Amino acid sequence: MALVAVLVALALRSPQQFVNGSFNGAIYALFAVGYTLVFGILDILNLAHQAVFMLGAVVTLAFMFHLREQGFPPPFSWLPFANGLNGWLRDHHLQFAVAAGAAMVVCGLIGILLDRVAFKPIRNRSDSNFSPMISSIALALVFEAIVLRQFGPNGESFPFGTFPVQTIEGPGFTITLRQLVIMAVSLLLTVGLQAFVRATRTGRAIRAVAENPRAARLLGVNVDRIIVLCFFISSALGGIAGALYGVEFRSSIEPYMGRGIELKGLAVIILGGMGSIPGALLGGLLLGLTETFTVDLLGSGWKDAAAFTILFLILLVRPRGLLGQKAVREA
Amino acid sequence: MGAGHTRTRLPLLPALIALTAILVMACGGGDDNKAETKSTPAAASATQAAAVPSASTGGSTAATSTTAATPSTQAKQLSLGAVVSLNGAAAVFGKSQQQGLQLAVDEINANNALGVKITLKVEDDGTDRNQGINAFTKLINDNVHLIIGPTLSNTALATDPVAQEKKVPVLGISNTGKGITDIGDYIFRASLAESDVLPQTVKRVVDKVKPKKAALMFANDDAVSKDGGDLMRDAIRANGVEIVTEQQFSTNDKDFRAQLTAVRNANPDVIFVSSLINPAVGIVTQARELGLKQPIAGGNGFNTPALSQQAGEAAEGVAVGAAWNAASSNPLSQQFIQKYKAKYNADPDQFAAQAYAGVYIVVEAARRAEKVDRTSLRDALPKIQNFDTLLGKFSFTEKRDAKHDAVIQIVKGGKLAVYE
How far is it, in rounded angstroms, from Cα A176 to Cα B96? Predict the structure, then answer.
C-alpha cells in the first residue's frame, strides 16, 4: 500500500516523468518476461537471451525490407490471395506487424536451437550451474559475430513511416502512439503468458517441471518437450521485444544492442521475484520509474547508482523479490 | 544418453573455429593487397625519362637530358608513410583518408613546379592500438621521412610516442582528442581539435539564436563526450549565456526522455549536446517528440551524414561545428571536390579533405627545408603560417596544433550546409 501511495505521489508530481518511467518499465518488462520464464523452469540464466532480442530486431528489419521490395515471400506467392495481400501490405502499417510476427517465429526456432546446442548437451551434468551460462554466452557471441559480419557495426533504424506518427497530449504529459502500443503489448504479453501458465493444461505441466522435473517425468509429463516449448515461447517473446525496441529507438539496431538491456533485465527479474511472470512486469515498472525519478529528483548523474541502490534496499527487505515465492523444493 | 548427444554436437565447434579462421585470413589477405598499392613516382619518372629520348631528335637531346636529370638533382624526394584504419570500427574513415592522400600525392607527383616527388607507403592499423604500433615501427624501419596518421586519437596516443622516441615527425590528420601534441616536439596535427571547433560552434549559435538561457547535455562515460561537455560549458558561459540545466547520460543509453523532460521544465532557449552519434540521434528525435522546439547544437559526434539519415526530419536545423564542409566557398575546396569525384566517383568527406590538405602541408614543409630528412621536416613544419589550403588559411600553433577557421554547419533538407 505504501508503494501505491508513493506511485500516486510521483504521478502527481510530474505526470510526464511518470509516463516516461512507466514506458521504460514496459520496455524492461518486455525483455524480462521471456528471460524469467526460462529462469523459472530451469533455474539457469540464459545469457543468450539478449542476442535473441537483438536477432528479433534484425530479422524483423530484414523481413520488412523483403516485404517492401518483393512483396509476399515466394513460397506463398501462388496463393490466390497473395496479390491482394501484397496491396494491402503496401498500403498499411501492417508490414511491421507481419514482419515482427514472422520474426517471433524465427526467434522461437532459434530458441529451440539454443536449447539443443547450449543447454541440452550439458543439462544432466553434475556441474550444471555455471557451464550452461558459459555455453549460452558463447552462443550469444556467435550470433553477434554473424550479425556484425552481415550488417556491420552501425546503428540502423526502421524506415520512416514504419509506425504511424502520432502524438497524444494527455493532462500534463505527451506520449506517442508508438509508445502507447508498446506499453499495451507489454501488458498483454505478460497477462497472456501468466494466464497460459496458470490456466491451461500445458501451463500446469510447465509449473510441474519448474517444481520438480523428476517428479513431473514420473507423473507422465514429457519434460523435454516442455523445456523446448519454454525456450520457444521465451525466445519468441525476446524477439518481439527486440522488434519493438528497434522500432522505438532510432539508430539502435546493431549487433550489441542487447547488451545494454541485459543487466537491467536481470535486475528486473531478481527484483520482481525469480521466475515470476507478473513480477517481471512489476519489477520492470519499478526500475523504470526509479530511474526516471532519480533524474527528476536527484539529477541525471545519479541515474544508475541511485536506481540500483534502491533495488538493493528492496532486496534487503524482500530477499526473494517482490512477488517471489519461498522455495518449497530443494531436494 | 547425454554423453551421446555431447559427442554428436562436438564437431560443430571445430567447424566454427575453422570457419572463423578462414574469414580472418581472407580479410588479412585483402589488407596486404591494399597496403601494397603505393604510388612509386621513382618508377614513373624513370619510364618518363626512358620514353622521352626515343621520341626526341638529336638536336634536343641536351634539353631532354636536363629534364631527365631535373628530378634527381633538383626535385626533392619525400618518403611519406601513412597509417590509417582500413579495417575495424574506423574503416569508413580510413578509406576516405587513403583516397584523399593518394589524390594529393598523384597531383603533386604530376606537378613539376613544386619540385617535390613523393613515395607514399600506406599501412593499416586495423583500428587497433597494437597493430598501429607495428605499422609505425615498420614505416620507421623503412626510413620514411614523416608519418601521417593514425586515424583515431585513441590509436595516436599509443603510436605517436614510438615515433617521438625515434625522432620521426608525425602529422595527425584526423585526431581531435586531448593530449596528442603533448606527446612531444615531433608530433604535429593538421586536424582542428575539439577545443578549437566547439567554442567557435557555440559562438556562432549564440550569435544567431541570441539565447539568454541554455541547456547542456553530455554523455558522462566516454572521454570525448565528457571533455566536449566541459568545453561547451566554458564556451556558453564565456558568451554570457546562463546554463539553466545540465543533464548527463550514458553513451549506451537509448531513452533520454527523463533528461529531456527536465530540460523542457527548465525552458532554455537553446540546447547544446556533446555526445557520439547514436545518443545524438535518440536525443534529437525524442526531443522533438516531447515537443521541444528549441535549436539544438552538437559537437564532432554529430558531424556525420548518419545524423539526418537516422533522425530524419527531427535533425533539421541542428547546428554542428566541423573543420571542413563540402559547401564551403573556398576555391581550393571546390577544385578538390571535382577532382575527388572524378577519380573515385564519390563525394569526399571531411576525412578525405583533411588527408589531402595534410599532404600539401608536408610538401610545403619539404619545399621550405634545405634538404629532406626527418629533423629538417620537423624544423620546417612550425614555420608554416597562413598557408592556403582547402581548409582555409592554415597555421601551426606554438603547440604544433592546427589553426584555421572552423565551418559551422546546419542540417538543411537532410544535408549539412554552411550555417551563415
Answer: 39
Collect all residues of chain B within an 8 Å Cβ-Cβ radius of residue A27: 255
Give the β-pairing of B415-418 and B407-412: antiparallel
CA-to-CA separations, B193 to A87, B222, B299, B401, in angstroms, rounded? 53, 17, 11, 8
Residues present in chain A in total: 331
What does each C-alpha distance from B115 to A11, B377, B403 come to in angstroms?
Answer: 74, 15, 26
Cis amide linkage into residue B305, ω under 30° from 0 = no
Element (H, E) at A33: helix A15-42
Return the number of other C-beta atoms located less than 10 Å from residue A33's C-beta. 30
**What band does A79 get if pLDDT is binned at 50, 70 and 90?**
low
Q: Which residues of B touch A145 (CB under 8 A)?
A: 20
pLDDT digits over A201-227, tens only? 999 999 999 988 889 999 999 999 999
Give the minimum alpha-carbon distance from A251 to chain B in angstroms, rounded to a whole number. 6
Check A155 against B277: CB less than 8 A apart: yes
Segment among A93-107, B2-16, B94-108, B202-216 with least mean pLDDT: B2-16
- Residue A90, pLDDT score: 66
Q: How many CB pairs under 8 A join A and B?
A: 97
The DSSP output letter for A212 is -
Q: Cβ of B258 and A260 within 8 Å?
A: no
- CA distance, residue B412 to nearest chain A CA (Å): 18
Sign of CA dihedral A42, A44, A49, A51: negative
Closest CA to B98 of B184, B31, B198: B31
Contact A41, A324 (CB under 8 A): no
Alpha-carbon span B116 to B76, nearest angstrom: 5
Question: Do the strands B387-389 and B319-322 form a parallel or antiparallel pair, or are they unpaired?
Answer: unpaired
Chain A CB contacts of B23 below 8 Å: 149
> Residue B257 has what pLDDT?
96
How far apart (Å, rounded) are the C-alpha atoms in residues B66 and A20? 78
- What residues of chain B lie within 8 A of the CB of A24, using their CB? 255, 257-258
Question: In this predicted model, what pLDDT tens digit does every residue of A225-267 receive, in sequence order?
Answer: 999 999 999 999 999 999 999 999 998 998 999 988 998 999 9
Question: Which residues lie below 8 Å from residue A159, measured CB to CB, with a gap of 6+?
Answer: A64, A68
Between β-strands B187-189 and B392-396, what pairing exists: parallel, antiparallel or unpaired?
unpaired
The pLDDT tens digits of the residues spanning A4-61 come to 899 999 999 999 999 999 999 999 999 999 999 998 887 888 999 999 999 999 999 9
Least Cα separation, residue B290 to chain A (angstroms): 6
Of B9, B285, B310, the CB nearest to A155: B310
Q: How far is CA B309 from CA A98, A159, A164, B315, B413, in A?
A: 25, 10, 19, 9, 11
Q: Is the confidence at residue B248, as pLDDT, over 50?
A: yes
Chain B interface, Cβ < 8 Å to A: 2, 5-6, 9, 12, 16, 20, 23, 89, 220, 246-250, 252-255, 257-259, 261-262, 264, 277-278, 281-282, 285, 289-291, 306, 310-312
Give the pLDDT confidence score for residue A130 in this predicted structure. Answer: 81
Q: Is A122 helix (H, G, I), strand (E, B) or coil?
A: helix
